[in-house]
Amino acid sequence: MKALLSVAAAAATLAVGAAHAATIGYTEGARPLVAGTTHIGGDAAQAPPGFDLTDDFGDDSLDPGDRVELFGRIISALDNYSFTAGSAFNFELIGNGIDNEAGQTPNNLIFTFTNQTTMEEFTFNVDTNSSLGTIGMLTAGAYLLEINMDPDNGTARYDIALQAVPVPAALPLFAAGLAGFTAMRRRRQKA
Predict the structure, then answer these.
(1) 0.85 cut: is pTM over it?
(2) Order of strands, edge to edge, in the sheet holding 155-164?
(3) N or C: which end of the chain has fewer CB within 10 A?
(4) CA dist 30 to 20, 44, 63, 94, Å?
(5) How many CA atoms lie within 13 A of 3 on its CB side?
(6) Would you say residue 12 lies in a domain?
């Protein structure tokens, strides 16, 4: 019985740990403020290695259930952001995805994620007419995200999200049930 209670307590702790999940939105200062987001200044490339996307979560990490939404505007320059992911995460286009603005426009935007530990680079070339949805998934780690354009002219707006892969809600309950059955089986064997 004590083992069963211990397992139930552990499952409850796991469930509470996942409850901190949050969505945070930022508008890069070159764009009009998007409702419900925080302005992060006129230039996303402030103070290398860039703006820290996760410093408002409290634990400075993108954890299961957390989502960062970023509404930016690139103007013949390189935007860069830093963040730490405590778990695997999806890189998505949201809102309007990528908009061309008046004048010469790039054919695509280049999103490069550099793992700051291994120095591996993961590059996604996204067409400016691309539809919404998940572009790719990366593993946990500390990253620098650089956004550039090809060709390097004109302006483009981007709406992107980093969505940490959630722990399935039923997983703690499944683990508790499995442990409970194991404990009952052991008790029967002893009897």
Answers:
(1) no
(2) 38-39, 23-27, 67-75, 155-164, 89-100, 133-138
(3) C
(4) 31, 9, 28, 18
(5) 11
(6) no
User: What is the tally of structural domains in the chain?
Assistant: 1
What range defines the domain where residue 65 resides? 22-165
- CA–CA separation, 124 and 112 (whole Å): 6
Query: Do the domain assignments include residue 15?
Result: no
Beta-carbon count within 10 A of 74 CB: 24
Query: What CATH number is attached to the domain comprising 76?
Result: 2.60.120
Q: How far apart are CA 155 and CA 110, in angstroms?
A: 13
Run of H or E including 36: none
Does 184 reside within a domain? no
Helix (H) or strand (E) holding 92: strand 89-100
Cβ atoms of 86 and 92 closer than 8 Å: no
| Residue at 158 is within a domain | yes
Q: Which DSSP symbol is given to 62?
A: B
Q: How, if at all, do strands 121-127 and 108-115 pair?
A: antiparallel
* pLDDT confidence of residue 102: 63
In what side-by-side order are the strands of the sheet with 51-52? 51-52, 79-85, 141-150, 108-115, 121-127
At residue 55 the predicted structure's pLDDT band, cuts being 50, 70 and 90, is confident
Dihedral (Cα; 44, 47, 48, 49), 10-degree rounding: -60
Q: Name the residue with higher pLDDT: 156 or 118.
A: 118
